[in-house]
Design goal:
single chain; mainly beta; seven-stranded mixed beta sheet; four-stranded antiparallel beta sheet; globular
Length: 129
């Protein structure tokens, strides 16, 4: 049974940084693309970033500010978020999709929230003074 557990959310001022973690169990990291969606109040869920065994994907809204990485030994994926803006405020969800490797395939899957094989419960990020 695949489980994804997020951590690292919190309150941060504009311009600040946070690092989110997604601890995965019940799967082999190399077999999946794992990444992040976010959902702000009243908005639809938005794909943010994903990482596979060989590639990464970033939404245009976070390119140059967010960095995704993975630690296979810990079965954990990280999202380093820098230069945070008010509009980054959302609940961030970790998700996994089996078999994706290329940036183009991750972009297609992260374009909407359907097709994921597993989801975490989410961690809240609030950017505010």
């Amino acid at each position: 049974q695949v489980q994804l557990v997020e951590s690292g959310g919190g309150l941060v001022q504009p311009g600040g940084s946070l690092r989110l973690s997604c601890a995965a169990s019940g799967l082999t990291l190399d077999d999946y693309a794992i990444g992040w969606f976010r959902q702000a109040p009243g908005e639809k869920r938005e794909g943010v970033s994903a990482i596979s065994v060989s590639d990464t994907y970033y939404a245009d809204s976070v390119k140059g500010r967010f960095t995704i990485s993975r630690d296979n030994a810990k079965n954990t994926v990280y999202l380093q978020m820098n230069s945070l803006k008010y509009e980054d405020t959302a609940v961030y969800y970790c998700a996994a999709a089996r078999g994706l490797t290329t940036s183009l395939s991750m972009e297609a899957y992260w374009a909407d929230s359907y097709g994921m094989d597993a989801w975490g419960e989410g961690t809240r990020v609030t950017v505010s003074m």
